[in-house]
Amino acid sequence: MRNMNESNITEEVLNTIEHTQSPRLKTIFTAMIRHLHDFAREVELTPQEWFTAMDFLYRAGQISSPQRNEFILISDVLGVSSLADMLSDRGADGATETSALGPFFVEGAKMLKPGGDLIESNEGEPGVVMGHVCDQKGQPIEGAMLEIWQTAHNGLYENMDPNQREGNLRCRMLSDKDGVYRFTTVKPVSYKVPEDGPGGDMLLSMGRHAWRPAHIHFKLSAEGYRPMATQLYVEDDQYIDEDAVFGVRNSLAVGFKRNDSADEAAKYNLQAPFWVVEYDFRLRPA
Ligand SMILES: [Fe+2]
User: Which domains does the chain have, with CATH numbers?
Assistant: First the structure.
């Protein structure tokens, strides 16, 4: 091992992981070491640059908290989260596409009955979101758990905004016997991912913006089906084709349709005008 040089050091390191117990972990470590070493050779990495990278990760750890995971943001803006989603969507065969979980999910939101209200005292344009949870063939699934979260009118999630009450614009809901889910909420707005940490510094240094098109997050699970996270995007949002985290898919860009009928609005305890989103989720077997 003393005769190492820039060409053979990769093999020397790989020799030391021969006894990794998990075959999957061994595959991942092997590829990671190869790619990292090739990367260093390709860019002729200097010790100072590598230290800068390590300091970047240190700062990402420092700014992270139970409410904020900077590493998820960094993964998202580099497109790695979306790439992993795309790889897991292979063979989806009509099932709803996944779209990044993102850093703002919180476990254990309040339970709402189908038809429940998320608007409460929030400012914004009122609307109703509804549809079914189905299998890949469109057969309804009863008792599927939907976890739903979105930003308020100011573009902030409640866990990033001390002015919102805890749990604002978050809920869990079970689909009914016909697979139906429905809730009223305010229209989501486009927002910027946090720019005040190393993830934001990286975006800035790349000459990129931090905007995401307006969306509502969903996490779905049902017995016998593969759990998934996805997002529904406002189709005509100005950032729909330049999402900072590469989450948009054609199948997830949906019409938020305006309805001016007071009678229709009254069915949902809303005032006209209001907007309507209809979307059926399709889950894959576990
Ligand atoms: Fe989001």
Answer: 1-45 (no CATH), 80-283 (2.60.130.10)
